[in-house]
Amino acid sequence: MPPADAVIASATAPLIPTAPLIPTALSGAVCGWGGGPRVPVTLMRPASVDALRGAISGRAGQGAIARGMGRSYGDAAQLRGGLVLDATGLRAFELDAERGALTAQAGVTLGELLGALAPSGWVLPVVPGTQHVTVGGAIASDVHGKNHSSVGTFGAHVLALGLLTASGEVQELTPGRDGELLAATIGGMGLTGVILWARIKLRPLRSASLSVDSDRFERLDDAFAALDRPGGSHRVAWLDLLSRRPVRGVVTRAEQLSRDPSTTDCARAQTTVAARMTIPARWPGGLLRTSIVRAYNEFRFRRSPRRETGRVEAFGPHIFPLDALDGWPRLYGRRGFVQYQPVVPRGQERTLEELIIRLRRLRVPCYLATLKDLGPQSDAPLSFPLAGWTITLDLPRAAPGLEALLRGFDELVAGAGGRVYLAKDGRLRPDTLAAMYPRLEQWRAVRDRVDPERRWRSDLGLRTGLVTAER
Ligand SMILES: Cc1cc2nc3c(=O)[nH]c(=O)nc-3n(C[C@H](O)[C@H](O)[C@H](O)COP(=O)(O)OP(=O)(O)OC[C@H]3O[C@@H](n4cnc5c(N)ncnc54)[C@H](O)[C@@H]3O)c2cc1C
């Protein structure tokens, strides 16, 4: 690991690994954030890099996959009957304040990093809609934020990373040192190896407050137009798809203030959010009803001003609103939910409109929907974003006709030159995946070079044909 100037935290494990310790293998069962079927796995949580190497060294024939906070919605971080390496024990990180760079082990969460970096006046350039994801998970899914059009994905800010490959070697990857493997690992869903650490370029935190402009809209076309208006690098639209009227909602465009009016002290900056409520584990199913969410949406829409500029909001609560409610997927009951997230290129707005029309025609309730604009795609062959529009649709898994509906959606999206986000997926088939990710063969060639025996596998990888069980 490259040296760094100032150690700001070393949560549990020192950066220089201590004596190897083989972690205990536990039988367990895991599932995705959307609460799909729980699958039996052998679970290991190594607390150091050496312990991680030890964990895989005696299990040559067994397939394995890394897991972070389990915030991917489908089956990306699991392998039925295989070894799941929980990387959240690798938690050390260092700030190089002079160069504005951070070196972090893979299991530390972005929320922990945001909280620790703020007093030094630095912030992560890209964060997804939850703070509870690990560095490893953010790189493996190449996550994007609401500011994708201006700063790209998380992977675009990775200067170097350490990868534990199938041979047991640790390789340090940079754009100049096996840049192909680096690109295949960014967005590679853990299928090139276990990310151990990464060096990430940071951005100065001018203030932890955002200046927020918002526009209420009553037609989808107005949402596209409002998202395209200049100003505000963090942009998103909340869509109310349960109203009996045409699609309506609110677009927000937020920009970091140059100076925080309420506090000039970054130490008190609110870059994260604390949960105010927890949905209990024994939450009774069936309480989430269309009528209730429709009434809530009506309230939310009416409460929003038609147009507002310059409202000051703290970064954390604005960027991570769902983190205020711990365990929210439990609202969907035992069967959980599916999040469908496609992206379509600019000019294909009608495709997204058609998805919404079909959803409404079949009366599948969509309890939460958002729309975002995305910027150009990166060099990473499996990275999701492309210049266009992405929508997220949270749908109860128990809704009748859902699978057939989503299969039709896949065809429309692929036909429009779009793709579905693998971090949210639990159902794509090999043919649709190949139609959506045209650089798939380029990715496979690199993967096969570093893992000819197909050691790294996941349920997502096997289901979609990203990897096969045997050569
Ligand atoms: C409320 C919410 C909002 C979200 N908003 C966004 C958003 O705005 N933008 C966005 O892009 N995503 C978003 N996501 C998805 C989330 O950012 C990704 O699924 C992310 O990968 C989850 O990180 P994790 O640590 O939980 O990883 P996991 O879910 O545990 O794993 C995800 C993938 O990363 C791999 N992986 C994990 N750790 C490692 C490692 N150390 N080495 C190699 N591979 C590893 C796993 O094998 C798996 O393939 C959101 C998720 C939630 C729950």
Summarize the structure.
By secondary structure, the chain is an alpha+beta fold. The chain has helices at about 50-55, 110-115, 135-140, 150, 180-185, 220-230, 290-305, 315-320, 350-360, 400-415, 430-435, 440-450, 460-465; strands at about 5-10, 25-30, 40-45, 65, 85, 90-95, 100-105, 120-125, 160-165, 170-175, 195-200, 205, 210-215, 235-240, 250-255, 275-280, 305-315, 325, 335-340, 340-345, 370-375, 390-395, 420. The site of flavin-adenine dinucleotide has 32 residues, from strand 4, helix 3 and strand 11.
> Given the C-alpha coordinates, what overall shape results?
globular
According to DSSP, the number of beta strands is 23
Q: Radius of gyration over alpha carbons?
A: 22 Å
**Small molecules held by this entry:** flavin-adenine dinucleotide
Q: Low-confidence parts, pLDDT < 50 over ≥5 residues?
A: 1-19
User: What is the share of helical residues?
Assistant: 10-25%
Termini Cα gap? 33 Å
- Taken as a percent bin, the fraction of beta residues is 25-35%
Q: How would you characterize the largest beta sheet?
A: 9 strands, antiparallel
Mean of the pLDDT scores? Answer: 92
